[in-house]
Amino acid sequence: MNTNEKTILIAKMYVGNYLNEGENIGHEIINLFKDDNGKNYIFITPYGNVNNINNIETVLMIGKTENGVTEIIAKATDLTPVYDDDGLNQQRNYIDKNNIKYAGIKLYDFFKYNTYKQEKEKIFYITFQAGNVLFPKEKIYLTEDKRKEKDNCIFISLGLPRQSMHQFYDENEKSFNNLINDETKWETENKTKKLSNNLNFNIMLNRFIKKIIDNEKNK
């Protein structure tokens, strides 16, 4: 891929063995909520860092792929990269400087008990700040099986993300341009919500788990 061309990133959510280890909370929990200041932040699985980050114009968030089909959960646009090579200290400083909290809890404190292979994790907290996050008006699916293509199920010839949990696509690909730019398919306003200050950590965790369950039920 040309490193200067604008791209779409398809990113998986709510998947991976990482979520099965101990009491881990997936960092992508933030993707569908506003922080206490009303801003949206996006974490790209699995580690929060991506190549050619400045070329990414849209993130399509998807759930689990099953039988070559996955549901689009939301799209994020107007992206400002937060990740850089300075690492976790830079991210913690950014969180402090911008007072990024959810229900009164500093973002990095949500994940302080997370582990990776039984050791304290060392991954990023945020990949992008997003100016807009929109949900589909009706269910939209992506498929890598041409036979399953139909009005609400779009065939992508490059296939869906697998081991890396995210994958780049050329924004000039016709099917993606039609999907992303078709205003009839997306809500007209950002309907992500803040977490109320009276919600505690366990309620936020339960909402995250519920989204996983709901996503699987709707397959």
Please characterize this protein's 3D structure.
- With 219 residues, the protein is α+β, with helices and mostly antiparallel strands.
- It has one domain.
- It contains four helices and 14 strands.
- The protein is globular.
- The two termini are 32 Å apart.
Number of strands: 14
How much β-strand is present in the residues? Answer: 25-35%
Shape descriptor: globular
Q: Distance N terminus to C terminus? A: 32 Å
Over all CA atoms, what is the radius of gyration? 17 Å
Features:
219 residues, eight-stranded mixed sheet, 14 strands
Please provide a brief summary of the model.
With 219 residues, the protein is of the alpha+beta class.
Q: What secondary-structure arrangement, pairings included, does this model have?
A:
Layout: E1 7-12, E2 33-34, E3 40-42, E4 56-62, E5 69-81, H1 88-97, E6 101-102, E7 105-106, H2 107-110, E8 115-116, E9 119-120, E10 128-134, E11 141-143, E12 153-155, E13 166-170, H3 174-181, E14 193-194, H4 201-217
Parallel strand pairs: 1-4, 2-14, 11-12
Antiparallel strand pairs: 1-13, 3-10, 4-5, 5-10, 5-11, 6-7, 8-9
